[in-house]
Every structure is written in structure tokens, then in C-alpha cells.
């Protein structure tokens, strides 16, 4: 792969702004200092800020919803606030690579931030729950774009020596969202100004939009954006995600099982259509025999299953540990805390052997942390037991953090083709969104299996998702074998 694949072209100078990724001395270090240097700080801030905006919005909306329902009503639509957002984000994530090829990084980000801001404004002004859901759908579409662009634009906005640290920074924003989102949402709810939370998002989106327009590259001028939209794949994947999302809103039992089964069938149909399609959502090399990209995506999906335990950990903390809502929220953020802190260390690995080891052992460390947490569950837990919960969950998050940046870079390096490389990077976000939908539905089903016993519900959910993360040990090993 040559440096020319990352340099801006001269075909659209009016869109380049101040962007010059390869300017500067040839002996640049490729370290954190260079990433946050004057040359790259704006690009890094946009990549990280878009994902942080999306992730934070996910978590603080959950904290705001009780206040929203109390103010404008619509309790029966409670679940659809999250479902509408996620569905729109899934659809948008599928369009990232095409929007990027057509508009370039600058205009693609501008579009995403403006759409997200419009959704935030509509949400803030909503007089009813129905209007609010529409606003959340618009927000989800814009959020899906900027979150997907966070991975895809690394290739074109930064030189290859900074990819690993940039990937670590971008994925760390999911942890930041988990840490900041609940507390920020709780603060606005406590102050009784839930609409102000979305106005804050609007302001942040507008600031990032201006920064993106000034700092990122424009269209490449290659003409490769003419690939038709893969409508059959798009429809099947959208229906699959919708079915998985609906499974969490129907009565527990056969209805949930039927939704999950139908979602799996639709997902299998998506794979079959993709394998034989001329235009695809994921890169064509995903389905090519001998390529390791599919194993990377499956490993990422496994990590997402582990992260989804955070949805219920605060509930278990309150009901099994007697924690306050605020303390339980921080307990729920421990997986992301381990994830974020570990990858800040992991991105400094210079040895190829060390990076391979991190990818190989990451799923095992995550599984160990989750299973330990499940085994430590008990009614009326003591303070010491709760501290052990936090410790093993941090260990589990560490398993994600040590491997995720290297998986991201491995996906980017899976091809020398610029368009397919962007699709490979954007596919990471698409994979995450779909995996979150599937594992969220499975988590809800496993909790319901526990019946009236919250202890049993906790164990079923943790051991069930922990069983999925074991599968990641195999997929991680296969991703390394195929890479060679």
C-alpha cells in the first residue's frame, strides 16, 4: 500500500480546506503527539467527536426518557424511541462508503452532522412522543453516518503511521459515551430541562460540521461512486435489524423466539444475497475465500455481545446490590472503562507479535471477566462483592480494548483498493450496529428466562452472552491465520 492512497487529489481543490495529511517532515513519529499536532488535531477531533456524539446520545437518552414521558406522555411508545434511532443508524451505516465516495470526507461529514443536528432540534421541540420518535429517527440517520465515517475516513484523512492510534481514539469514544452519557442525561433530568440536552447536541453537531468543512478532504474524483445501491441486501438487512429490535418489545416467550428466529433467517438471506450480488453492503472481499475480513467482522460482533451486558448491569446492581441509580450507572460503565483504558495502552504496541497476541487473547479475557461476574452474583451483595463485580467487569472490558484497535487496522489493510478499503472500514460500524441489535434482543430474552428471580435472570444473561464471546476465541484465531 502506498502513501499516494492517502493523499488528497487535485480534482476538487475547493473542498480541501486546510487539509494536508502528508505535509511535514518525513521522520514523523506516528505517535500521539503527531496525531494531536496542528496538522492532524482537527481531523482527529472530527473523527472522535462524531462517534462520541453518537455514543453519548445513545446512553443519555435512556436516562432522559422517564422525564420525557412525564412531560409529553406516550409511555406506550417508550421502546420505539431507541428502536427508531437504531434502525435509522443501521440504514445510514450501509450508505457511508457510497456517500464518502460521492461527496468526499468533508461534505459527507457535513451532511451527517447537519442531519443529526436537525434531528436533535426536532427532538428538543417535540410536543408529543410521536414527533419525538420522528426526531430520533432523523438523529439516528445522521448519527449512523458520522459514526461510520469515524472509521472510514481514517484511511483518507491520516497517514498510515497514525491509523492504529486513530482507530484506538475512535473506538475509545464508545467508552467515553458510556461514561459521560448517563451522568449528563441524569443531570439534565435532575434539572428538569430534558429539551436542553438535545439543544446541546445541536450546538455540538454544528461546531463539528464547520470544523469538518474546513479540515477534511473533498471528493477524490475517481468516479468510482457509480456503483448501484444494493437494494435487496439493504432491504433484507433492514428487515432483520427491525425484527431483532421488535423482539425486545413483544411479550416474552414464543413471540420473542419467533422474532429472533425470523431475524436470523433474514440475516442468513442477507448473506446469501450479498455473496451473489454485484453490488454489496459489505466489501466483496468479505465473502471471498481465503480473505480474513469476515473473521474480523465476526470477532467485532462477539465483542458487541459482551458490551451489551451493560444494558442490564445497572439493573442488577440496584436489585442485587442495593445500589443507588447513579452508583449502578457507574457500575454499568465498568466494561467500557476497561475497554477505553486498555486500548490507550494497546495502540502503543509496536511489535507485530504483540499485536497478534492481543487479538488472539482478547475474546478469552472478555469471556473470563463476564463468567467471573456471573459466578459472583448473589442476592443482597456486600460492598466487597460489588467491588469484585466492578473489578472483573473492568478485566472483561480490557479484553476488548487490547484487541479492538488492531482489528480495526487489520480491516483497513485488507485491501489496497481505496473504495473497498473504505467499505471495509465502514463495515466495522455496520457490524457493530447489527450485532448490538441481535445481542440486545438475546439479552432481553435471557433475562426473561430467569422469571421472577433477578439472580437467575442475571446469571442466564451473563452466561448466555459469555457463551457467545467464547466463539470469539475461534474467530480471532481465524482472522490471524487468514491474514497470513
Please state the average pLDDT score: 80
CATH class placement of the largest domain: Mainly Alpha
Count of spatially separate domains: 2
CATH architecture call of the largest domain: Up-down Bundle
Q: How far do the termini sit from each other?
A: 16 Å
Shape by Cα distribution: globular
CATH topology of the largest domain: Growth Hormone, Chain: A
Strand content: under 5%
- CATH superfamily (homologous) name of the largest domain: MFS general substrate transporter like domains
Which structural class is indicated by helix and strand composition?
Answer: mainly alpha
Helix content percent band = over 70%
Description:
There is one protein chain. By secondary structure, this protein is mainly alpha-helical. It folds into 2 domains: 33-220, MFS general substrate transporter like domains (Growth Hormone, Chain: A, Up-down Bundle), CATH 1.20.1250.20; 279-484, Growth Hormone, Chain: A, CATH 1.20.1250. Helices cover 75% and strands 0% of the residues. It contains 17 helices and no strands. It has helices at residues 32-35, 41-72, 78-124, 129-152, 154-157, 163-191, 194-215, 231-246, 254-276, 293-307, 313-321, 325-332, 334-346, 352-375, 383-412, 418-449, 454-483. The chain is globular, with a radius of gyration of 21 Å. Mean pLDDT is 80; it is low at 1-27.
Amino acid at each position: 500500500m502506498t502513501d499516494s492512497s492517502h493523499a488528497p487529489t487535485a480534482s476538487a481543490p475547493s473542498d480541501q480546506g486546510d487539509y494536508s495529511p502528508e505535509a511535514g517532515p518525513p521522520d514523523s513519529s506516528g505517535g500521539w503527539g503527531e496525531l494531536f499536532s496542528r496538522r492532524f488535531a482537527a481531523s482527529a477531533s472530527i473523527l472522535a467527536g462524531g462517534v462520541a456524539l453518537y455514543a453519548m446520545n445513545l446512553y443519555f437518552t435512556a436516562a432522559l426518557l422517564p422525564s420525557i414521558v412525564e412531560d409529553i406522555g406516550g409511555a406506550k411508545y417508550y421502546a420505539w424511541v431507541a428502536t427508531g434511532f437504531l434502525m435509522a443508524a443501521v440504514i445510514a451505516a450501509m450508505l457511508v462508503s457510497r456517500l464518502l465516495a460521492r461527496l468526499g470526507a468533508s461534505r459527507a461529514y457535513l451532511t451527517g452532522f447537519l442531519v443529526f443536528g436537525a434531528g436533535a432540534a426536532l427532538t428538543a421541540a417535540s410536543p408529543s412522543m410521536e414527533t419525538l420518535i420522528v426526531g430520533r429517527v432523523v438523529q439516528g440517520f445522521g448519527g449512523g453516518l458520522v459514526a461510520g465515517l469515524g472509521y472510514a475516513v481514517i484511511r483518507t484523512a491520516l497517514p498510515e503511521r497514525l491509523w492504529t492510534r486513530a482507530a484506538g481514539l475512535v473506538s475509545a469514544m464508545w467508552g467515553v459515551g458510556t461514561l459521560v452519557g448517563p451522568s449528563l442525561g441524569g443531570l439534565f433530568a435532575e434539572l428538569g430541562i430534558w429539551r436542553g440536552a438535545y439543544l446541546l447536541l445541536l450546538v455540538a453537531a454544528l461546531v463539528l460540521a464547520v470544523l469538518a468543512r474546513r479540515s477534511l478532504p473533498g471528493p477524490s474524483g475517481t468516479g468510482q461512486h457509480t456503483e448501484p445501491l444494493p437494494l435487496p441486501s439493504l432491504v433484507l438487512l433492514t428487515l432483520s435489524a427491525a425484527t431483532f429490535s421488535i423482539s425486545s418489545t413483544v411479550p416474552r416467550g414464543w413471540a420473542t423466539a419467533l422474532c429472533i428466529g425470523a431475524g436470523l433467517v433474514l440475516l442468513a438471506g442477507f448473506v446469501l444475497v450479498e455473496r451473489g450480488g454485484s453490488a454489496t453492503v459489505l466489501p466483496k472481499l468479505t465473502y471471498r475465500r481465503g480473505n480474513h475480513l469476515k473473521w474480523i467482522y465476526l470477532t467485532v460482533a462477539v465483542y458487541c455481545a459482551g458490551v451489551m451486558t451493560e444494558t442490564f448491569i445497572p439493573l442488577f446492581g440496584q436489585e442485587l446490590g442495593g445500589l443507588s441509580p447513579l452508583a449502578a450507572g457507574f457500575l454499568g460503565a465498568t466494561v467500557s472503562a476497561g475497554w477505553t483504558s486498555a486500548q490507550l495502552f494497546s495502540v502503543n504496541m509496536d511489535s507485530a507479535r504483540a499485536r497478534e497476541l492481543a487479538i488472539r487473547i482478547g475474546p478469552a479475557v472478555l469471556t473470563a471477566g463476564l463468567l467471573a461476574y456471573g459466578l459472583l452474583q448473589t442476592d443482597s451483595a456486600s460492598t466487597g462483592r460489588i467491588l469484585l463485580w466492578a473489578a472483573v467487569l473492568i478485566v472483561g472490558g480490557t479484553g476488548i480494548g487490547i484487541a479492538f484497535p488492531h482489528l480495526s487496522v487489520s480491516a483497513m489493510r485488507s485491501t489496497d483498493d481505496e473504495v473497498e478499503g473504505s467499505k471495509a472500514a465502514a463495515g466495522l460500524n455496520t457490524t457493530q450496529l447489527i450485532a448490538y441489535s441481535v445481542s440486545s434482543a438475546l439479552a432481553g430474552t435471557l433475562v426473561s428466562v430467569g422469571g421472577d428471580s433477578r439472580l437467575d435472570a442475571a446469571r442466564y444473561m451473563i452466561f448466555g452472552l459469555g457463551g457467545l464471546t467464547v466463539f470469539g476465541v475461534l474467530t480471532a484465531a481465524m482472522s490471524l491465520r487468514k491474514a497470513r
